Amino acid sequence: MHPNPGLQTLILIVQLQCFRVLRVAGHERASWNPIKAVIAFRKPGFWDPAKPSYYSGGKKPGNITWDDAFVGEVSRTFKACKVFLFFPFFWLSYDQVYANMSTVSASLVLGGTPNDLIRFIPLTPLTVTTGARHVRTQLTFLLRVVMSAPSPSL
């Protein structure tokens, strides 16, 4: 159980409000075709129907209980979360490399060392971060992920 149930309830309410904003914004442009949905999501005026200022003369629907600033924050949040769409592809390739290394290590002469101790060490993230520290460059989290993502596919 969460140490603060009131905070957990508040977080759930904010998440539900965010999905309500998304539903109101995409109501007119909703499509089961993923390509059309992505194109509609990227259009500049996608979030406008969710803003109360979009409706003239105070004729906003009753289900809109938020303001324009909240819609802007939800928009920025969804734009920031697109980074995480690449993680499944990264981990699929990473797990495949790990499975291949486990299979190869099963056939090695280990001299008494268990197979579980033979693991693939991702060298690219290690060398990238160490090299960046050596030249005194601070890498952001996103840049580290992008630079180390090709390592499982090598």
The major sheet is characterized as: none
Q: Count of helices?
A: 6
- Beta-strand content bin: under 5%
Arithmetic mean pLDDT: 77
Helix content: 40-55%
Which structural class matches the secondary elements?
mainly alpha
Number of E-type strands: 0
The radius of gyration is 23 Å
Globally, the shape reads: elongated
Please, what is the oligomeric state? Answer: single chain
Report the span from N to C terminus.
42 Å
Describe this structure in words.
It is a single chain. α5 crosses α6 (141-148). The chain is 54% helix and 0% strand. It has helices spanning 5-25, 34-42, 68-80, 87-106, 123-134, 141-148. It folds into two domains: 5-83, no CATH class; 86-153, no CATH class. The chain is built from six helices and no strands. The protein is elongated, with a radius of gyration of 23 Å. The mean pLDDT is 77. The protein is mostly helical.
Main attributes?
single chain; 154 residues; mainly alpha; 2 domains; elongated
Show the helix and strand layout.
Elements: H1 5-25, H2 34-42, H3 68-80, H4 87-106, H5 123-134, H6 141-148
Summarize the structure.
With 154 residues, this protein is mainly alpha-helical. 54% of the residues lie in helices and 0% in strands. It folds into two domains: 5-83, no CATH class; 86-153, no CATH class.
